[in-house]
Each structure stands twice: as structure tokens, then as C-alpha cells.
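Researcher: We're teaching a course module on how sequence relates to structure. For the next exercise, students receive a sequence and then see the predicted structure as C-alpha cells, so they can try to spot secondary structure elements on their own. Here is the exercise chain.
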Amino acid sequence: MLHRRLTTSMLALAAALVCALGATAASARAQVSWVVTGHGFGHGVGMSAYGAYGYALHGKGYKFILGHYYPGTTLGQLSGPNVVRVLLGSSSGDVTFTEATSACRTKLEPTRTYEAHRLGSTVVLRSSAGKPLARCGATLRAAGNAGVINIVGMGRYRGALETVVNESGALNIVNALSVDNYVKGVIPNESPPSWPMAELKAQAVASRSFALTAGREGDGYDLYSDTRSQVYKGLESEYTTSDEAAEQTAGQVLMYEGNIAETLFSACSGGKTESMENVFGVAIPYLVGVPDPYDGACPLHEWTLKFSGPEISAKLAGLLNGRLKKVVITKTGYSPRIVEAKLYGTGGVTTVTGEQLEVALGGYSTWMTFEKVVAPG
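Model: And here is the predicted structure for the students to work with:
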């Protein structure tokens, strides 16, 4: 905030009228800044990856870790392959692939290249030269050689390739595979593969359970390959240690009252996880806030953002009336992440959510406190 410097005559006048004008002059020279102190990275519901890492370093096994973050759940065992379908991307053109042994009831040579070509609302299998080989209907499914298929430009994946015409007329590129193979391509992208085996096993069970409960109905898929579901990058992202964690927990999921538990997780909690109802508005008995004493290794266990007065008012412009005067947190969760707050501006008071504040300020979680710093200009 810019202020004019006071002239000598003005200072003399201020000295003569100190009682009347002294406070006003000090206020006019003051510079306002804001310090936002935050904790954790992510929504904070369920298992904290860094917290689980800390528990593993302190000798706790994966069953203890899962029981701590998802209280009331038990370990269960799946029957059958439980296939999941993951959206890898979409293409307005042809989808090219190799290492396939069959597609659309047609035997293929794994060393050759083929393509899925959209024809109206159907998909046609073609050779690399564009020769039609088979009509596939709404979906082309290409089985991989030795359980692996190469999608040109995207990488190698376990399971099969499925291409489906979506609502916009493009081809959805989908990887269909067993949930046990799927988690092999998830674990190293959610937890560093160098972490202790107990944490990797906990991640394997949580990722497997989440995959089978958090799906959506899309054009040929039920999971995304990014943070909207879990980060999945296929065979080329796998590591020996994370594969071992997946194999040693094969088929294991968390259960609650006869159903697979929806095992949300985030990077780090900041010291306490949060209850589901305070973040997503729905209460789930096993997704409640718990202490997270070993989360301190996370680089964002505690973080700080600093703004000048004009900067924070500009960032909050869509939520604020006028210039920011103060922030009053009116409702918090267990952690205590902000559920609701009031922004006092020069033009009035507005009510906002913690998520709105996090997004507007570029924070890492909704666990935030605000300090207004007033310094002489």
C-alpha cells in the first residue's frame, strides 16, 4: 500500500495536535501484510502417506497402519480377478498399438502394429497400412501378448486395450486389467518405492480398496489415471519393491460391515487427519479424524504464505467485499481444517469455505491460520 510522505510542516501540525491526529497519522503510515500458516497437503481424509511412512519407520506393520487411519475396518480377501477400467486419454484420430495377440475375434501378430479407427459410432480394427481387418462394434478390445500391450505414444500396460467412442465422437483409450495388476502401476506413483515395505503394503491395500469403491460411470471406464482417482502410469512406472508389496497383499481389501471400504488417502495431514463430513459433507464411520504423530517428514507438514495487503485482497477479490480487514474462522473440523470463515472487508462481511480460501490463496490444504501484521510505513 502506497502512502505520501509527510512534509515538515505537516509533522509540526501533527505534533501540535497529537491527541486528535496522532493515531490517524500512524494509521496512514502503516503497512499491512498477511501471514498464512498452513499444515498438510491434500484433503486430509483417511491415510496420510507420510504419516504411514513415519509409522513404518517406528516399526508398525501395514495392518496396524490401516487400522489406525480407517478405524473399525477389517482386512478382507477378494475372490475373482475384479477387473477395473482406467481412462488413459482420448484421441480424435486413430489409436495405434502393438504386442497384441487378438482383437475383435481376429488373431494378431504381436510384432506388428495395428490401429483402432472410428467409423461413425463403431470402431474398426485396421492394419498399420489402414487396411480394415474387422468391425468391432462399439468397443475394440485388444488382448496383450503375455498379458502386456503397448499403446503407441503412451507406453506399455498390463491387461488389455479397449477403445470406445465417447460422447464427443473421439476414442477413449482405456486400460482394462485386474485390480491386483492395476495397483502395481499405482503404488510407486503415490508412495516412493524406496519407502519401508509396511507403508507400501498399506498403500497397496488402500489403493485396491479405493479402486473398487470410487469408480464412476464413463464411456467405457470407471477410473481416471490421475489424481481424480489415483495416479496410474502402467507397467513402465513399476518397481520391484512396490510390485512385491502388491503381490504380498494380493486380493486384500479393507472391509466395513460386509462392504469394501472407501479408503481415501492424501499426501500428508499436517499432524491430524480430518473427518469425511468436514471435507466432503458426508459422514462415513471409518473416515474420521485421528492423530497423525509421525507426519513431520512431509515437506509440507507446515507451510507459510505471505501477502501484502493489496495482494491478499486481490486474490480474494471474488470472495471479498472491498479490502480485507480481518479473517474470522467460525467453524473447523477435527484437525482443525477450516470448514467456514468470515471475511471482513471494507465493503461488508462475506462467508466462505475453507476450500474456497485454499483455492484462492494457492494453499496446500484447508488447515490455515491468518495473521495480520501492521508495520510502520
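Model: If you want an answer key for the exercise: Residues 85 and 265 are 21 Å apart (CA to CA). The longest strand covers residues 139-151.
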